[in-house]
TrEMBL record:
One GO cellular component term: membrane
Keyword Transmembrane helix: yes
Pfam families with a match to the protein in the record: CCDC47
Protein's name according to its UniProt entry: Uncharacterized protein
Domain of life, source organism: Eukaryota
PANTHER family: ADIPOCYTE-SPECIFIC PROTEIN 4-RELATED, PAT COMPLEX SUBUNIT CCDC47
Source organism of this protein record: Trichosporon asahii var. asahii (strain ATCC 90039 / CBS 2479 / JCM 2466 / KCTC 7840 / NBRC 103889/ NCYC 2677 / UAMH 7654)
Record's bilayer topology term: Single-pass membrane protein
Region annotation Disordered: where it falls in the sequence: 320-343, 393-424
A biological-process GO annotation: endoplasmic reticulum calcium ion homeostasis
Gene Ontology terms for molecular function: calcium ion binding
């Protein structure tokens, strides 16, 4: 403990001291003020460290922003030739940049993301370099990732797709397989058409033949080019989420068919041309899949596999709910079903439904108020002819009491008396939760009263004795 205190005392700034009048060092004087730099050595060191950090931040940010604009410029130009609308580059930070495009047949949306080294953050940059030495295969490397969304939900989906198919570089394949759940649907397949530096993942061999042997796609040409394969991290076609669902299977609206292309960061014009070539191949594959080239029997197998996985996910989620005691009640299911039904309504239909429900609730309240005469809350009237609530079992004379009751109900406390908390208004509640009438007369604070309702002989369901009173 003493060692810790000594260490803290060494790094802590010294306590303030009275400056001596005799001083031979350098100082600044202005009227009655004097500044002696020699007495602020610790503060000067801290300002120097902070200034160095800020200087490195701005230098790293400027380098990254310039590099991002240079890399993204040809990608934006390529996207402009293929898509109707292209949004200029957006930057989440100086190390993460995004380009979005839409408006093309067979492609719903296009996302291009660029990740660079965190030159603007020296601490994070140091950690990334250390982690790359510890786990070189799992460290996240800078690069480009292109995401082509062919369809989502009921928008833009033609046919059943090709399932999960991909080409992964063996350098970093373990990290990609660990992060992407959709690759668990495919299995590794050996083929001479894929270079030795990469691995093929597929759900069926005929899908591979259709993609590699169909002319005008261009995928086989890039596989035969060494420079193109050196740039490729992975090329994945998937109709399954890349992340495993945690709350049962995904809904139909959340399912998407996508093409993912991950490449190393280009550093020259040749590599930039390779990036555009891979993007062109991805678009060619999207057009090819829109023709539904897969045989029906293969499609049925793919659908069956996904149904089995969905059933397993639903069963696992129900089991987790039962273990955690979070099983959905019938009321929760009813509300969820009601919410889902409302989600599909237009704004006009939703307003009409809300108005209908509001009128239904008003009718229910009016119906409850009319039942039982004075017993209901709707027909309750204030006590008449009262100055104070009687104490000690006296009688209350109320002309507004229901005629079926005795003319003079008895105020008596059987068991637990009700205590008034304050002077003024209160509310009496009768048996079975029915409201008798509001109390508006002046009440002495702290007065204790009890009610025993004496009903007439002809009153249906009459009770003698009052066992609950709330104020």
């Amino acid at each position: 403990m003493s060692a810790i205190l000594q260490a803290i005392s060494k790094i802590s700034p010294p306590p303030p001291v009275n400056a001596p009048r005799e001083y031979d060092g350098y100082e600044f004087r202005w009227k009655m003020f004097v500044f002696r730099p020699a007495t602020f050595q610790f503060e000067g060191m801290m300002f120097a460290i902070l200034g160095t950090y800020l200087l490195l931040h701005f230098i790293g940010k400027a380098i990254n922003m310039g590099k991002a604009k240079k890399i993204m410029a040809p990608i934006e130009a390529f996207a402009a030739t293929q898509f109707k609308a292209v949004r200029p580059m957006e930057s989440s930070s100086s190390a993460l940049h995004l380009v979005y495009a839409t408006g093309r047949r067979n492609v719903l949306a296009f996302h291009a993301s660029l990740k660079l080294s965190t030159l603007h953050d020296v601490i994070m940059l140091l950690w990334e370099n250390i982690y790359s030495f510890i786990e070189p295969t799992k460290a996240e490397q800078p690069g480009l990732t292109f995401q082509y969304t062919l369809g989502r939900g009921t928008n833009g989906l033609q046919g059943e797709g090709a399932g999960v198919w991909g080409i992964l570089s063996k350098n970093g394949m373990a990290a990609v397989r660990e992060k992407r759940w959709d690759l668990s649907f495919a299995r590794i397949q050996d083929t001479p058409l894929i270079p030795a530096t990469h691995t093929l993942f597929t759900e069926h061999s005929e899908i591979t033949e259709a993609l590699l042997k169909t002319p005008n796609i261009g995928l086989s040409n890039l596989l035969a080019d060494a420079d193109s394969m050196d740039m490729l991290k992975f090329f994945i076609i998937s109709d399954v989420s890349d992340r495993k669902p945690t709350k049962g299977p995904l809904s139909a609206q959340s399912r998407a068919r996508q093409i993912w292309v991950a490449l190393h960061t280009p550093s020259n014009g040749t590599e930039e041309a390779v990036v555009n070539a891979w993007n062109q191949v991805a678009l060619n594959v999207a057009d090819f899949l829109a023709k539904n080239p897969i045989k029906p029997e293969i499609t049925r197998k793919l659908i069956k596999t996904r149904l089995e996985v969905d059933n397993a996910l639903a069963k696992q989620y129900r089991k987790e709910q039962e273990e955690d005691g979070e099983v959905e009640s019938a009321e929760d299911k009813r509300l969820a079903k009601k919410k889902a039904a409302r989600a599909g309504l237009s704004e006009k239909e939703l307003k009409k439904l809300e108005e209908k429900e509001r009128k239904r609730e008003i009718r229910k309240i009016q119906k409850r108020g009319g039942m039982g005469g004075g017993m209901g809350g709707g027909s309750a009237r204030p006590f008449a002819g009262m100055d104070k609530v009687p104490v000690g079992g006296q009688r209350i004379r109320d002309p507004g009491w229901p005629r079926s009751m005795a003319k003079t109900p008895t105020c008596r406390t059987p068991g637990s008396p009700a205590k008034l908390a304050s002077t003024g208004r209160g509310m009496l509640w009768g048996p079975l939760g029915s409201r008798y009438r509001p109390l508006e007369a002046g009440v002495t604070e702290g007065a204790e009263i009890v009610l025993e309702l004496s009903a007439g002989a002809g009153t249906p369901g009459a009770r003698t004795g009052y066992d609950d009173a709330e104020w």
